[in-house]
Amino acid sequence: MWYKAKMQNDLFENKQTNDNDPRDITDSRDELNHAQFSAVTHGDGPVLVIAGAGSGKTRTLVYRMAHLIENNVPPESILLLTFTRRSAQEMMSRASSLTSQSCKRIIGGTFHATANMLLRRHGHHLGFGSGFTIIDRSDAEGIINLLKSSLGFAGAGKRFPSKRMIVNILSGAVNRVLPIEDLVHQQHPHLIEFLDDIYRLKEEYFQFKVNHGLMDYDDLLINWERLLKESKDARAEISSRFRHILVDEYQDTNLTQASIIKLMAYNHNNVMVVGDDAQSIYSFRGADFYNIMRFPDQFSGASVIKLEENYRSTQPILSLTNNIISSARDKFTKTLFTKVKGGSRPVLVPALNERSEARFIVETIKKHQQEGTDLCEMAVLFRSGFHSYKLEMELTSHGFKFEKRGGLKLTESAHIKDVLSFFRILTNPWDNLSWNRILLQLDKVGPKTAQKILESIKNSDSPVNALFSYKPASSWKVGYQRMLELLQNTGQENLTPSGQFDLIMEYYEPIFEKIYYDDYPRRKKELDQLKSVVAGYGDLQSFIDDTALDPPENISADELATNDDPKEQLILSTIHSAKGLEWDVVFVLGLAEGRFPHQNAVPGEQWEEERRLLYVAATRAKKLVYLSYPRELMTPDRKLRRAGMSPFLSEINPGFYEIRKPETPSYSASSYNSQESFSPKLPSRKKTSSARLQFKTGMKVHHPFFGPGRIKDVPGPRRVEVSFDRHGDKILHLDYAKLEPAE
DNA sequence: AGAACTATGTTTTTT
DNA sequence: ACATAGTTCT
Predict the structure, then answer these.
(1) A128, A224 Cβ separation under 8 angstroms
(2) Is any atom of strand B within 7 angstroms of residue A452's beta carbon?
(3) Do A377 and A571 meet the contact criterion of CB atoms below 8 Å apart?
(4) CA A366 – C1' B12 distance (Å)?
(5) If we measure between CA atoms, which residue out of A444, A513, A422, A323 comes closest to residue A436?
């Protein structure tokens, strides 16, 4: 079979690789090494694959799926659990292309979406029957907000931990089955003084969810686990339906998820998990990388396979990333290596300030583009969403298209939440969070008035009737009655979800136009898209649950506005959202003291996780990585503060990188403080040796990245079109490209 | 006086 | 997008 042939090829042919041509890395990815081969062809029983970054973990899983299918395992009896839905889709399409048979019937997705789907198929709507609504983080923050005022925390101001932090603590405590006390002592020691308040919040938060039929991500998983634990029938049915369970990114699972996997496989133990402890970056969410170490205890007779060969990056990048992770306190040693030599050393960029950093990145991206790297083969990564603001400005002013990942999600934007809250009260009339949102839209109704109205329906058997009997004040009577009218109309039996959507829009549009008068058209387009999503659903409950778990990601504001080829877009991403992805050229920005590690991270476990985060960022690069930091940062009181480099950078052996200071003649210290717009004059550049050489059509050439090729055309004075043996045709700019004649 | 509205400053990471 | 402080409305 195909993988066997390739395997033998790899083992016996002793293939020669061109040391200066990193191109060969991608070639060798189509072959399996010995360890991968045994993982892929492993028979029944539990398998743990521990592997480093870029070692082909995911590829091993894909090949495993293809192998199972070639051996007549029905696709619908394979369950694939991944970290993101996108990765599940990608893996299934790759498996399909490897086999003649379709892999479409493989069940795959995130834990939460799968839990939701399985519970629904078992007739347990979320395990509780109907009337429950799954909430996401922004809802949880909303609840905390409501509770904070009712508990009298409003005046605590800045000293009180942020809502986000509280949500993290509460959900972390649930995930880990850890008392809040321990969690705060271990992870958030600076919040010890608020321990009592956090305890009260936890109680109130739990009560609020129970009273209003709300359920968060963790409740969903806990219900799934409970169902499997308590019902022998459910357990038997699921484990006989899914004969093979494959799990990606196992280091990011929590205890509940590990238990679920065990329960689902209880009568066959055909579980294969892949993971890397050095890439565990979700402990704040309850992920426990000791799950990996416990796997052999949990599944007796488990085979453990280590993948240590790296197929992604060049050796200079690996030397740097190995050096980063070697400072980690706890680690399970893996030494990554690649057979391929060559490649450029990582570049450390100390920039004067954030703007200089942004400009360096923009100029360098331009340079790589001119050398023939597509925009979609580059990415800029950072610790926190707002670190990229300066860069976004710079990119926009240079006319670059980019896609930012990890910022605000569509379902977190206000207008979508508004419309969804109408749907939510239709399936769950006790959902106070949504009522609150709807009432606040009314003119002359603020938090206090909304609260009063909600009080009156709190203990009512029929919230809708209670609202009808509430006496509105004259100033907002008209709007209130319009809302009640909508309730009556949407409550009719024979309406489809998309019919209800139309009614809701009829009511909401005037309000919507008033609130978002400045960018009304953009948001309107997104709502139209939402309607087409709604139209695909027969029942409302499924739609509500799915949008909470799995925001429809194909609705992207950028795509709608520009309708651009995604290949022409640069990716800006938080490191967390970049997990599992790879690019030729990666920039990591903001590696300054106080930004990376995050300011609130305390030495110990949290500090270690920040280090792994840098490791994950740097290992995304295939050919070249730039690590940059601004030496001046803006403090909260708008003063400039000197910042050193991140302590993680200082730990790196300087032999593993080269330093490149941005050429900054046009915005040196003197012009820095002025508000003048940037100078149109480009910084002077050193010309490469290629610029002086003469190239003619037909000439054989060699490029450090693209390898051997032949000149196809000379379209301009300093431009050549080269037809590369293995990279196709590229137009190169001789001022930038390091093109050399080949003998 | 209390509620609603407006302006201004800050923002960890997320299925 | 949210929190807070200051201002206007009822």
Answers:
(1) no
(2) no
(3) no
(4) 30
(5) A422
Residue A205 parent element (H or E):
helix A195-211
CB A700 within 8 A of CB A710: yes
Could you tell me the distance in Å between the CA of residue A7 and the C1' of nucleotide B12? Answer: 44
Query: Cβ of residue A157 near strand C, that is under 7 Å?
Result: yes
Range A464-494 burial, b when 16+ CB lie within 10 A, else e: eebbeeeebeeebeebbeebeebbeebeeee
Cis peptide before A597 (omega within 30 of 0): yes
Q: Strand pairing of A700-703 and A658-659?
A: unpaired
A681-CA/B15-C1' distance, Å: 46
In 3D space, the residue among A457, A524, A467 whose CA is nearest the CA of residue A491 turns out to be A467
Distance from C-alpha of A621 to C-alpha of A585, rounded to nearest angstrom: 6
Of A421, A351, A422, A337, nearest to A390 (Cα)? Answer: A351
Q: Are residues A405 and A571 in contact, defined by beta-carbon separation less than 8 angstroms?
A: yes
Q: Which residues of A397-428 are buried (b: 16+ CB within 10 A; e: fewer)?
A: eeebebbbbbeeebbeeebbbbbbbbbbbbbb
Token code pair at residue A530: 């939402």
Closest CA to A361 of A572, A59, A655: A572
- Location of structure tokens 């209003």: A212
In angstroms, rounded to a whole number, what is the distance separating the alpha carbons of residues A442 and A33?
A: 64
Q: Report the distance separating Cα A739 and Cα A720, nearest Å.
A: 10
List strand B contacts in A 92-131 (CB < 7 A): 110-112
* Cβ atoms A726, A707 nearer than 8 A: yes
Name the nt closest to A389 by C-alpha to C1'.
Answer: B11
Tell me if A278 sits within 8 A of A272, measured CB to CB.
Answer: no
Interatomic CA–C1' length for residue A154 and nucleotide C4, angstroms: 10
Beta strand pairing status for A740-741 and A700-703? antiparallel
* pLDDT at position A549: 79
Rounded CA-CA distance A445/A438 in Å is 10
What is the pLDDT at residue A677?
30
Residues with pLDDT less than 70, chain A = 1-30, 100-101, 122-131, 149-160, 175-177, 330-335, 407-408, 410, 459, 518, 551-567, 635-639, 663-693, 704-706, 716-718, 726-728, 730, 733, 735-738, 743
Phi, psi of A710 (to 5 degrees): -140, 140
**Protein residue nearest nucleotide C4, by CA to C1':** A157
Place of tokens 């910084």: A683
Both tokens of residue A642? Answer: 């000197």
Q: CB of A560 within 8 A of CB of A390?
A: no
Query: Which structure tokens are listed for A501?
Result: 């959507």
Region at A103 (left for phi over 0; alpha for psi -120 to 50; beta for the rest)? alpha
Judge if the beta carbon of A160 is closer than 7 A to nucleic acid strand C. Answer: yes
pLDDT for position A349: 92
State whether residue A701 is helix, strand or coil.
Answer: strand
Query: Of A37, A42, A33, A35, which Cα lies nearest the Cα of A15?
Result: A33
- The reply to whether A638 Cβ lies less than 7 angstroms from strand B is yes
CA distance A372 to A393: 24
pTM for the complete prediction? 0.79
pLDDT of residue A546: 82
Q: Between the CA of residue A671 and those of A186, A315, A666, what are the distances in Å?
A: 46, 40, 8
pLDDT tens column, A634-651? 765 566 777 888 999 999
- Dihedral angle computed from the Cα positions of residues A469, A474, A475 and A476, in that order, rounded to the nearest 10 degrees: 20
Residue A334 CB burial class (10 angstroms; 0-12, 13-18, ≥19): buried
